[in-house]
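Bumping with the actual sequence this time:
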Amino acid sequence: MPTTLCSAKASYKKQPGTLELTDSHLTWTQDGKKAPAVRVLHLEASSLFCSKEGAAQVRLKLGLVNDEAGHNFTFTSPSAVAYVEREAFKQELTNIISRNRSAAPTPVQKPTPLSTPAKTPAPIQSTSRATSVSSDTRTPILSGIDAATDFRLRKKVLLSNPELLALHKELVMSGHITESEFWDGREHLLLAEAAAEGQKRGRPGQLVDPRPQTVEGGEVKIVITPQLVHDIFDEFPVVAKAYNDNVPNKLSEAEFWKRYFQSKLFNAHRASIRSSAAQHVVKDDPIFDKYLEKDDDELEPRRARNEVSDLFINIGATLEDHGETGNEKDVTMQAGRQRGALPLIRKFNEHSERLLNSALGEVPPAKRQRIDSGNDEDDDAYAQITLDDLRDSEAMDGITLQMQDRERYFEGQLARSASEQAGSEVVDVRAAFAELKHGFRGWETRFSQFRIDRRAGDAALDSMTQNVSARLDIRTRKTNFPPTLFRQLTTCQTAANEFLRQFWTSLYPPPMTATSSATPSQNAAKAAKMAGYLSKTREKVDALVRASQLEGVEPERVEVAMKPLLDAVDHALAFYRARSTKTSTLKTA
């Protein structure tokens, strides 16, 4: 008799039963029956997932080596008891999975017919599941990353795209296609999500300018957060110096900020040249007034800026440009004409410079500015504005065009070119030029007498107007399908489109990459599998036509709506049959 490690009441596919873990198997038996409906060997366990703590239902999912979907169990005892029971199973299964991973790889036995659960309604997948200490060991879709990260990227992509999530549930969860087949051709979505996660968030471009708020009683209030304090210190180093000099010896932190927001120093740091006296009272402060600086309103800025040698971003470079055109200098553009605006303008410029330095600080100097390339002037100018990140590192080879009777095509090309060469005559250049010159005589008179017939233009305009009206009418017209029927039509079309994509990708796979390495035999098996699914599309459409009659919808409307899909499916199946017949003929020969 096997030794029972733990046991609990649990439902499987909405059917109540008992979940039991022995020293050799994990079994689930439906209430009222003696034979277990689910029987899993310890060696078949590969991954474990659990619902989050505090979730409405206490769930556990066990992934198998030869079954990506695995089995989902919901503990039916009261919440407190169910959580304890689930943790006991989790601990035991974690140890089993760890032993499976540490052991030498051995071929896993195929599951016996007993391990296939009875066909019952599909379970509702939990939307709040978290990976346990035993993460997924399936081969990641993207190479170079671990399985847990790959699973997290796939989950984020699905949750951010409801249509893709519905398609995943329809095809993968139901077992029509595997997880790897679903993501084949969609690796760019995972790569984009990984790139978005790897991007470093830059500094906000907004100037630090706390806005006082007036509360009840006429008092002025400013909410101070740690992020605001960090931004103030980063934007105005003099405030950080004042803080280090006076807190906590002379002032407490609360008193420091209260006096700062009422001081002339804060008023000088405001991102506006308008007086803020109406918003708060500016007082003389013996501590903060010591840190005041004279307004930077002289013709030359107080802080010398590095000269910009790149003519593509030097605004002053246009001062002497295009002198040959006779343009005079703009006398209205005089530096320092309005001295009151100079401090604010220079504050904006310094803030912009800090933003650029924070973004480019980690970039090597050779990438920040590319000059003196040794080429001619045009190449050197182009090298200053080209960005390596915008260059495509890999050229797309495309898909090889499969042609029938390729020899006849090239023979026809050769014959046509030979006939053209034979029929061509030697052209007298002088005579041809004289004839052309003679034809241009009196062109001014003929051009002035030229009149365009309005009928051709009016006909073209009417045609375009009717085309736009027809498109607009189609977009504004409602489907008038019942919601249930419309959802079924959409689901059928989406699934068939995915089968078509998988079918053509298997027949004409893209160039071999790190994420796609299927062998020709695997592609052939996949094409046969997809062709089998596509052959059932017409039956599904016929069922929808019959369902539309029960909903009171004309069957012709459903047939018209699904006709493009059926045409694409028929074309794919006809192509597959012709290809299979040709292949079998070649093998026989």
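The tokens above came from a reply further down the thread. DSSP finds 20 helices and ten strands in the chain.
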